[in-house]
Amino acid sequence: MADAQPHVPKSETMLYEGSASCCGAFGDWCRRTKWRITTSYIERTTGLCCTSIENVQLLRVRDLGFKGCCCCGTCATIEVTSSDTSSPVIYIRGVPNSQELYKKLREAVNAIQGNAKLEIDI
Predict the structure, then answer these.
(1) Domains in the chain: how many in total?
(2) Nearest to 102 by CA among 26, 16, 19
(3) Could you give the CA distance from residue 42 to residue 29 in angstroms, rounded to a whole number?
(4) Cβ(38)–Cβ(15) under 8 Å?
(5) Can you give the pLDDT at residue 7?
(6) How far is it, in rounded angstroms, from Cα 122 to Cα 104?
(7) Is the pTM of this model over 0.90?
(8) Is 73 helix (H, G, I), strand (E, B) or coil?
(9) What is the CATH number of the domain that holds 87?
């Protein structure tokens, strides 16, 4: 029987995979937004029948922001600003343990951009 989990290369680590679970992200819930966030990219899938997939490589991330949510205290919004022309700003809303995800995402961005700078310098 085939593995139901999508393949993640050994060089990547899954940081989060799932949907919004907070009432503060009702719009994302209605659009059936699903997230797949690894140490290499952020992927957002929206829609039920006609799906749309957006992907931003962490190498392109310019800034990360975090805004807490007062409605439940466990969720928040992570703002990702990138040099990607099709998705320059992505808002990751209502995912559980948002602050922990923000910290992991920030570490992954720093690591991947640090490695890229080393490769350019050499």
Answers:
(1) 1
(2) 16
(3) 18
(4) yes
(5) 54
(6) 27
(7) no
(8) coil
(9) 2.30.29.30
Rounded to whole angstroms, how far apart are CA atoms 115 and 109? 10
Q: Which amino acid is at 71?
A: C
Distance CA 100, CA 8 (A): 21
Asked if the structure places residue 7 within a domain, the reply is no
Q: Is the residue at 1 inside a domain?
A: no
Which among 31, 49, 47 is positioned nearest to 94, based on CA atoms? Answer: 31
Q: Could you tell me if residue 103 is inside a domain? A: yes
pLDDT digit string, tens, across residues 29-85:
456 789 999 999 999 998 877 888 999 999 999 999 998 866 665 668 899 999 999
Residue 63 included in any domain: yes
Please name every residue paired with 35 in a beta bridge, in sequence order, or none if there are none.
18, 44
- Supply the range of the domain harboring residue 93: 14-121
Distances (CA, A) of 103 to 28, 34, 61: 22, 20, 14
Instruction: Return the amino acid letter for 34.
Output: K
Tell me the C-alpha distance between 5 and 69, whole Å.
30
